[in-house]
Amino acid sequence: MDDRIRVLEPDGDEPPRHHRQPRGLPPLRSLPVLPAAVAIGLLGLLVGYVFGAARAPAPSPPIQAEDLSGVDHNADPAVATPFGQPVPEAHVTGETSPGTTSLTTTTTTTPPARLSELVPGFRGTMSWVDYAGKVHRWNSGAREPRAIDVPIESWGHDWNAEGTRLLYVSGNRTPALYVGVPGAEEPLALQVTMARWHATHANRFAWLGSTDAQAFDERVWEAPMRLSVAELESSTRQVATLDVAAGFEHTEWYLMSWNDDGFALIRSSWNQVGPEWESAVVILDASGAVVFEEAGLEWLASRPDGSVLVAEARYNAIPTQDDRNARIVLLDGSTEPVDIDSNVWTVAYSPDGSHRAQIDGHGRLSLRSPSETTTFTRLAHSVTWGPDGRFVVATLNEGRFFLFYDLETRAEYIVKSPGSAYDVAIH
Predict the structure, then answer these.
(1) pLDDT of residue 54
(2) Of 30, 141, 234, 412, which one has the greatest count of Cβ atoms within 10 A?
(3) Rounded to whole angstroms, how far apart are CA atoms 254 and 172?
């Protein structure tokens, strides 16, 4: 029985009975007895009635509804309090025959808690995508997230700096870039492989598209790509043409981040036959000129100041020491060395750049700053930050739960998500 349903029930398997005269005895007026005998008989019946009433099962006290204000949201994810699930009403049905008292049932429905109640101090709007083709948005003041349908075959979901508009790419043979208010996106360009919003301008975005529409379906990675930028309700400007890497048959380009100073890209190249494969980091300035290019590096994170964190690619021999070669690359092409654990796969910087949340190859989540390191026992899938830098938010159990960590109080909170969440952003 649900803890939040208050039901009044008697002890035992049967409801309490009315106490009546036992069957099989003739009425008193038909007995040829003396008045004294009648008095004695009435006294016996009275004693029997009282004795029987004392032995009758009494109703148990009401089962009180659980007080949800004290629920521990830092519990194990397997038993974490789910978000916004209405409690179904309880109904007791059955026949009421003569001599039977019907059950008294009282139902209490507890409204779902607001996100700010589940996670005290959290402010903002969470957005994520699930594998069922829905975008979810959950404001901290709302009791449950709002679901918006998007194409299941879409990818590269990205929110603008204000969290008001969404873009993604959708389509198989003719993938198109969709941009707009969630639930009202419109196609703006064809033959697009991926796109990104500007780091700070809410109306400016860039995308990678094929320069050869004829070859896009089957030979997209054999043709040069086009890097373009645009603003909503404005003209498009082509920034650069990105060629296939020399010595390779196929090249795939990824736009990782960009701002007024330039563009950070990953170039992945391979040959159809043979083990040759290469990953490179390429930085373009605002005009599209190459200011940094180096093979053997892989992407780890973008930083609030526009720089990027890169590290030695794993297909190379990773040194046996605990740290591997990693660098901060500025968008002007300059670099700064940084120590990074050899097994780190995912990194996210706080808005002010003072903390670094990271996940290693085993799923272990840790939080690093110049003065301390915080480790977590639960295994994480992805990690991001709240807009004010107070909360680190990670996905657990393949996106089925959110872990909120409060840097001010050092408290952890677990909140259940609908489905499996990925591409999580907070504004």
Answers:
(1) 43
(2) 412
(3) 18
